[in-house]
Design brief:
The complex is a heterodimer of chains A (about 350) and B (about 260). Chain A is built from 15 helices and 15 strands. Chain A has about 350 residues and is α/β, with parallel strands linked by helices. Chain A folds into two domains: about 190 residues, Thiamin diphosphate (ThDP)-binding fold, Pyr/PP domains (Rossmann fold), CATH 3.40.50.970; about 110 residues, Rossmann fold (3-Layer(aba) Sandwich). Chain A has a seven-stranded mixed β-sheet, with helices on both faces. Chain A has a five-stranded mixed β-sheet with strand order 10-12-11-14-15, sandwiched between helices. Chain A has a two-stranded antiparallel sheet with strand order 1-8. In chain A, helix 4 packs parallel to helix 6 and helix 13 packs across helix 14. The model of chain A has no long low-confidence stretch (mean pLDDT about 95). Chain B has about 260 residues and is an alpha/beta fold. Chain B has one domain: Thiamin diphosphate (ThDP)-binding fold, Pyr/PP domains (Rossmann fold, 3-Layer(aba) Sandwich), CATH 3.40.50.970. The chains are: A alpha/beta (about 350), B alpha/beta (about 260).
């Protein structure tokens, strides 16, 4: 066990964790606030140690299609970007999901819309969870709230992607990407050999070794009945993921009177609000979704049965709150609190919102 | 001598390459794609690269290239074939990686990927079919459509003031440091077919040897899109296309050394 604690930015921890996972390749394009991922990888020169490929692409469009190809070859490949770049990657996300290839994508969100700001946001929730590209598809969406989770979700994301032949998306906000915290990095794992990949991914495009039948990775099927069957297969996988892979953290929810539902950096601020509330004798619990898709609807509905109201603090103008409302089916009041445009609230602001909107 | 006396294995001078399967091709009679597909299959077979070959098919008429040639294939989003080939080759340097793209895919929507892959000197082979029209979508204007040429989206003929000029992209690529071999060929006569085959072979060997990017442009016909018979399409190509897109090697780094 490597228990060496180091101090690192979230973006850097993610880059280091990817090398140590035994990643085969990274393809990306610089954009604030996630450029440290590519910078760290170039600094570490993993091609000299593990043989990992690192390439600065000419655009996010090229980068996501490089990842599409690498994933189609059964390789553990990934890219990272921030919101405007993630918009450019939506076509590739749709193609990868349609082709059922296992890829890892990281979006360290900044404020939008448009070029927006370089400061933290969570306003790509819809784009990430509801399918930002065309067609019916879902990536698994993981929401880290600490530098440690930035590192840990690399392995989790890839393991899930290979398990279900799907895309895993780490949806961090700019705060989690930029902040420095203690982190324990995973041990270095060897990269899989070509033989191991051929065994694990018999569908992978790697050349017809031993004259096996050809492998084709495509998202195209002009026969409507076959394309409908493909869609039913995708949906069956999504139902399986919904059944098995919902993850969330419950904090003090057993006997709370009020519940907050928040992810990423907003969950960290909500934890401070819980302390402030406790000091005033108000019992506030927190559910922190770790998977934003699949969403912990059942878990939220269970806690909702015994609370007077729910606050959903977001760095977005009301996105995740829609899923919370669907989960609780109007049985308790669900209120929204936000800061937008790259601003992050203080715990006092959030606590005041809780009191104003739910306790009065 | 009866026909059956002639039809014997020892008299056989020509056969379909085994990699070109019996799937019914969707290409129009007279289209250049069928010939170029055959050449790709022949060269892979002759070089013994069936187990190492990875093709990247585009969006356009040749989108289904993967149905006809029995090697491993990736099917790219429109214009992104060279980005996909870049990753495949970097992740598996011992493989033959090539793209097969039309003019819309390679020289319009994919221009950024095309230029940057060539400029990085990715050791991939690019087969670029230039027939000056969008065939698959029904004959719209391509980046390479000639001035005066009529298409569904320039029905009165391409005009520079309205539609811009035709793009001759291959000479641009020849100027880039990353390209090893850039050539422009055609397949309208047996002699030209042989030259194109030699070009594809050189390009594929360059990929295997990690020598940088090779581009084989094939000036091609689209008799359906051009609304001509196959024979007239060949003639129209010779009379009109070759002036803007003259045949021959534009760059061969190895030839200079020899």
């Amino acid at each position: 066990m490597n228990d060496k604690v180091t101090l690192m930015k979230g973006n850097e921890a993610l880059a280091m964790a990817a090398i140590r996972y035994g990643a085969d390749g990274y393809f990306g394009y610089p954009i604030t606030p996630q450029s440290e991922v590519l910078e760290k990888l170039e600094e570490e020169m993993p091609w000299e140690t593990t043989g990992m490929v690192v390439l600065q692409a000419e655009s996010e469009v090229a980068a996501i299609n490089m990842v599409y190809a690498g994933a189609s070859c059964g390789k553990a490949v990934f890219t990272s970007t921030s919101s405007p770049g993630f918009s450019l990657m939506q076509e590739g996300m749709s193609y990868m999901c349609a082709s059922e290839v296992p890829a890892l994508v990281i979006n360290v969100m900044r404020g939008g819309p448009g070029l927006g700001t370089i400061h933290p946001s969570q306003a790509d929730y819809f784009q990430a969870c509801k399918g930002g590209g065309h067609g019916d598809y879902h990536p698994i969406v993981l929401a880290p709230a600490s530098v440690q989770e930035m590192a840990d979700f690399v392995a989790l994301g890839w393991d899930l992607a290979f398990k279900y032949r799907c895309v895993s998306l780490i949806l961090a906000d700019g705060l989690v990407g930029q902040m420095m915290e203690k982190v324990v990095l995973p041990e270095q794992r060897p990269r899989r050999t070509e033989e191991e990949i051929r065994k694990q991914c018999p569908w992978a495009v790697m050349g017809r070794k031993d004259m096996r039948p050809k492998n084709i990775i495509t998202s195209l099927e002009l026969d409507d009945d076959k394309m409908e069957a493909n869609n039913h297969r995708f949906q069956a996988t999504y139902r399986e993921i919904e059944k098995n892979e919902v993850r969330c953290e419950h904090i003090d929810t057993d006997d709370c009177d009020y519940l907050m539902v928040a992810f990423g950096s907003m969950a960290r601020i909500a934890m401070k609000v819980m302390e402030m509330a406790a000091a005033e004798g108000i019992k506030v619990g927190l559910i922190r979704p770790i998977t934003l898709w699949p969403f912990p609807s059942k878990q939220i509905a269970e806690v909702a049965q015994h609370v007077k109201g729910i606050l959903v603090p977001e760095l977005a103008a009301g996105q995740m709150i829609e899923d919370v409302k669907l989960a609780v089916e109007c049985k308790v009041p669900v209120e929204h609190f936000d800061r937008l445009g790259g601003n992050v609230p203080s715990p006092e602001e959030m606590f005041n919102a809780l009191k104003d909107k739910l306790i009065k | 001598m009866e026909n059956n006396d002639i039809i014997k294995a020892e008299n056989r001078v020509y056969k379909k390459p085994a990699l070109l399967n019996d799937a019914h091709m969707h290409y129009c009679p007279g289209c250049s794609h069928g010939v170029v597909h055959k050449l790709v299959a022949e060269v892979i077979e002759e070089l013994g690269l069936t187990e190492k070959a990875i093709g990247v098919s585009p969006v356009g008429c040749s989108v289904f290239a993967y149905n006809y040639i029995d090697i491993d294939w990736l099917e790219a989003a429109h214009g992104r074939a060279t980005a996909m080939a870049t990753a495949a080759k970097r992740l598996m340097p011992d493989k033959l990686v090539f793209t097969y793209q039309g003019d819309g895919d390679f020289a319009a929507i994919g221009t950024a990927e095309s230029i940057h892959s060539c400029n990085r000197g990715e050791s991939i082979a690019i087969i670029f079919i230039n027939n000056a029209i969008y065939g698959m979508t029904g004959g719209q204007m391509a980046p390479t459509t000639l001035l005066g040429q009529k298409t569904a989206t320039c029905p009165y003929g391409r005009r520079a003031d309205l539609n811009g000029y035709p793009l001759s992209i291959t000479p641009l690529l020849a100027q880039l440091d990353g390209t090893r071999y850039v050539t422009r060929q055609s397949v309208h006569t047996p002699a030209n077919v042989r030259k194109t085959k030699a070009a594809i072979k050189k390009a594929f060997l360059n990929s295997m040897e990690g020598k940088g990017t090779s581009v084989v442009e094939v000036v091609s016909t689209c008799n359906t899109g051009w609304k001509l018979t196959p024979e007239k399409a060949n003639n129209w190509m010779v009379e009109n296309m070759f002036a803007k897109y003259p045949l021959g090697d534009l760059k061969d780094v190895d030839a200079k050394k020899e």
